[in-house]
Amino acid sequence: METAEFVRFLDREGLLLAAAAEKAGVDAKVPTCPDWQVRDLVRHTGMVHRWAASFVADGRTSAHPPEGPPDLDGADLLAWFREGHRHLVDTLSCASPDVQCFHFLPAPSPLAFWARRQAHETAVHRFDAEAARGGTPSEIDARFAANGIDELLCGFHARPKSRVRSAEPRVLRVRATDTDDAVWTVRLSQDPPLTERGDAGRADCEITGPVAGLYLSLWNRLPLPSVTGDASLAALWRENSAIVMS
User: Which CATH number fits the domain 3-133, given the four candidates 2.160.20, 1.20.120, 2.60.40, 1.10.287?
Assistant: First the structure.
């Protein structure tokens, strides 16, 4: 997928998030993030959007924490979110393809990294906002979902920060049932997981399902669709796969 495609997804998902948050109301509970109300979700995502935009817009080459949450609520908070989302979309759309700035996962370029990362960040939190609103959630494009699984398995969980570890070597397979070539083989050990794309030999446990459902379940937003083999490996994932972003 190209950078411009990720920016389009980011644009769409942010608009949907804001609309769902507005309909749910800032006091509504977020069932997919039990400690949060909608205001917490909006504040978090809005801070992340501004944080990401600052690296690209200012050419920052070292990490820095996001600014604290705004002292806003209700309609003012939603307006603040929409302003920050639009600034991020515009920043990514207008940036030079060769902009140099901090990023924390392998990518063709810093700009490609931030467009991809913020598109997926916003898509997952859009689902959270729609869960708070109730009703049928918006669909997730299959190619986009497969890309997000790839980012999670081959990017985030390749880092030393990953807590998905096994005392004995084990193999976990993730397989989409509705998308060609959307298969990952995850080798677990006492070291960070090592993920190969494709069906690479025998697996101790396999998680299967439609790619959009896999995407949300691997981000711990939905139950795992189908588990065969040693279910303790699926439980290991659920218990240890929460992500620290940077």
Answer: 1.20.120
